[in-house]
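User: I'm putting together a teaching handout on how sequence relates to shape, and I'd like one worked example. Could you take Carbamoyl phosphate synthase small chain from Alkalicella caledoniensis, show the sequence you're using, and then write out its predicted structure as tokens right after it?

Assistant: Happy to. First the sequence, then the structure tokens directly below it.
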Amino acid sequence: MANLVMKNGAVFPGETTGNLNKIVGEVVFNTSIVGYEEVLTDPSYKGQIVVFTYPSIGNYGFEMIKGKNIYPKAIVIQNSWVNEDIFEEINQLPIVIIRGVDTRKIAELIRDEGTMLGAIIKSNKFEETVKYLNTTTICNPVAQVTCESKYTIKPNIKKVAVLDFGIKEGILNHLIKRNLNLEVFPAFSNAKEILDSDPDGILLSNGPGDPRELQSVIDTIKELIGKVPIMGICLGHQLLSLSLGCEVEKMKYGHRGGNHGVKDLKLDKTFITAQNHGYVVKKESVLENDQLEISHININDGSIEGICHKKLPVLSIQFHPEGSPGTQETEYLFQKFINLL
């Protein structure tokens, strides 16, 4: 047995196996019905405890993630898997699993009170754990998921420099599919190094954590704006927005799942998107910036899902146009970026 202890004192008992030291991370929930393999291998979940609200996780196995890095610290699920063989298979991965938990109750708590730190423990030291959670912080994890050195993928005519803040393989695959030459740089590369590669465009990738902690990256992006076309995705969108003078704030419980409605204001059309973020660009800061305009909004809460520059070839989106997991209705945005090159 094990317990998920939340920062506010709530305790959710469940079952786990093997040796378990205290696991601490930000507790977030994901509403996707499928795509749990993609969640486990998404660097944007680095260091988090992911709660799946869908009650049947593991029903098509884990073949896809064998040999790949697993980024969440733990996952919390409601079901007892399809069979014990699958549970034992996933239990060999470098991740803690707690099952038999009322995951929708956790999601309800997070919706009411916001995302918060939590810990998975085998003991009953609840008060001690809550005290610890209220006095600790989690450092920004981008440095742990970026590449160590730059690398090139599929040379071709057009070259895109990719800043890797924890990029998903699915994004790279969509760019490769469009016959782009990709040169992938570590997150903290400087502007001169990036521009010396003579790119036709720059893509700022997704990634984990609070963008406001990456001031050196923001300063680098400021030097890149106006030099070549730029596209930002998820964390990259937030960093680009900060570089353009906007503000970012932490959301109460974030958007995580594969069924979030987003409206493209120029097309006057709504799409279903995949999302994973806990921060958002403040709408007021965009409206007050006469260089920018809002391109996409969330149809549920009206939050900003995309911006573009009125004069420069700059666009950014909060959601994941590649899906992985989720629909691929917004692939057109990759082509929109390519048209700027």
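A couple of points you could highlight for students: The longest strand covers residues 248-264. The mean pLDDT is 90.
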